[in-house]
């Protein structure tokens, strides 16, 4: 019990003193997660809106496929991207493996189905009159998409924040594609795994506390935005 107390005390000291190594790891995780969330949102939201407002023959199949991809483990996504960017892969000439770009690509691939699926669900509850009115006024496809997105903006923002929460806590992609390189590709989750395996619990506890705080903030924002979307 005393060892746990000492580790917790040291962890709090690292956080309060803004330890340099701790800050580097946290900043890397936030940078990768925010970047992948932005890219996935730019792809997934328009795709989700297009899927929701379309009358494609295989629309139901695509929706089921997106929902299936939500349960794919992060290590599987990491392995898939690894085969694409390794030196013998089709993208090997870009030398992306074990770099921040590799992590961002992997995380983006992971959450695009999530963003698209949530965006599709969010747009599906928008009053059809909105789209019909835009069509009547002669709006093009882009303008219609923007109009629908504006009506569902709170729900779409919830989708983006949910995606961020998904990638900030993943470990498989960061470990496989980033290589857990100190000061370069080491993230919160990979650092926790490494420090724990080495028996150094203080830094792992500090990172765990920060990750819990981030998760709390994400869930708090989602809950507030969810209430707002209901009232709107």
Protein topology:
Blueprint: H1 2-16, H2 20-53, H3 59-69, H4 74-85, H5 100-124, H6 128-136, H7 141-151, H8 153-168, H9 172-178, H10 188-197, H11 201-231
Q: Could you write a compact summary of the structure shown?
A:
The chain contains 11 helices and no strands. By secondary structure, the protein is mainly α.
Give average pLDDT, whole number: 87
Structural class: mainly alpha
Low-confidence stretches: none
Terminal Cα separation, in Å? 50 Å
Care to describe what's here?
The chain is an all-alpha fold and 232 residues long. 78% of the residues lie in helices and 0% in strands. The chain contains eleven helices and no strands. It has helices spanning 2-16, 20-53, 59-69, 74-85, 100-124, 128-136, 141-151, 153-168, 172-178, 188-197, 201-231. It is globular, with a radius of gyration of 21 Å.
Q: Can you tag this structure with a few keywords?
A:
232 residues, mainly alpha, 11 helices, 0% strand
């Amino acid at each position: 019990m005393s060892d746990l107390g000492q580790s917790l005390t040291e962890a709090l000291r690292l956080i309060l003193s803004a330890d340099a190594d701790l800050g580097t790891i946290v900043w890397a995780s936030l940078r990768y997660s925010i970047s992948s969330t932005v890219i996935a949102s730019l792809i997934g939201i328009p795709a989700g809106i297009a899927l929701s407002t379309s009358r494609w023959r295989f629309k139901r199949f695509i929706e089921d496929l997106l929902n299936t991809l939500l349960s794919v483990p992060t290590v599987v996504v990491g392995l898939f991207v690894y085969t694409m960017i390794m030196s013998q892969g089709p993208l090997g000439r870009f030398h992306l493996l074990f770099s921040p770009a590799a992590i961002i690509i992997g995380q983006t691939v992971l959450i695009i189905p999530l963003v698209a699926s949530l965006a599709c669900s969010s747009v599906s509850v928008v009053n059809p009159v909105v789209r019909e009115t835009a069509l009547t006024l002669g709006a093009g496809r882009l303008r219609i998409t923007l109009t629908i997105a504006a009506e569902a903006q709170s729900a779409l923002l919830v989708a983006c924040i949910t995606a961020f929460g998904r990638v900030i806590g993943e470990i498989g992609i960061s470990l496989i594609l980033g290589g857990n390189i100190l000061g370069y590709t080491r993230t919160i989750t990979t650092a926790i795994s490494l420090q724990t395996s080495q028996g150094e619990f203080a830094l792992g506890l500090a990172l765990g506390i920060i990750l819990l705080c981030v998760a709390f903030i994400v869930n708090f924002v989602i809950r507030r935005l969810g209430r707002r979307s209901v009232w709107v």
